[in-house]
Amino acid sequence: MIEKAAPEMSNVYIQLEKAMKIPFLGWIIRKSMPKEAGNTVTNFIVPHLAKDLYKLKDGVDDIARNAPALILFHAPKGAEEHTVDAHIYLTYALLAAHSLGLGATVIGLIGPAINQSKQLRQLFGIPLGNEVVESMILGYPKLHFKRAIIRPRKNVRIYHNN
Ligand SMILES: Cc1cc2nc3c(=O)[nH]c(=O)nc-3n(C[C@H](O)[C@H](O)[C@H](O)COP(=O)(O)O)c2cc1C
Q1: I need a labelling partner for 49 at 20 to 30 A (CA). Which of 59, 75, 113, 156 fits?
Q2: pTM of the model
């Protein structure tokens, strides 16, 4: 199913790139999105498309990354707290997958592509009125890490009552 979906997922992003290049239409698309999604499209997705990513170039699937399995977190669009719930499920699913020794990672590109495409919604059996909030790809890891990656520490402010 993932292999079958790859060309259409790619096509959604190719069409997005074309539309964003049309002067007034590009501006309208951006303005019709919540600011966060607009920034993701402008600052992340469009520059990647300009480098020919997400276009199945030379048959390389850099959206689903040739994953053998995919979990979609979806819910009725108006369901109370469904967005935050989906992110909680996603996070627990990542931990569960890793604890089983599987490789798992979040792919933000897949949900919006499915939501945009009737063909993809039908393929993945997403009921009408539902939206895919997030997706997680799963597979057997090629690499095993002995140590965690060293990352800069975030600042934490601690307040004391006395
Ligand atoms: C919300 C979210 C969406 C993401 N979307 C994508 C994506 O569409 N494509 C991608 O290659 N990586 C995406 N990533 C990054 C990978 O899931 C992963 O975090 C990254 O490969 C770094 O792995 P690490 O966090 O284990 O170091 C996303 C990460 C997050 C948190």
Answers
A1: 75
A2: 0.91
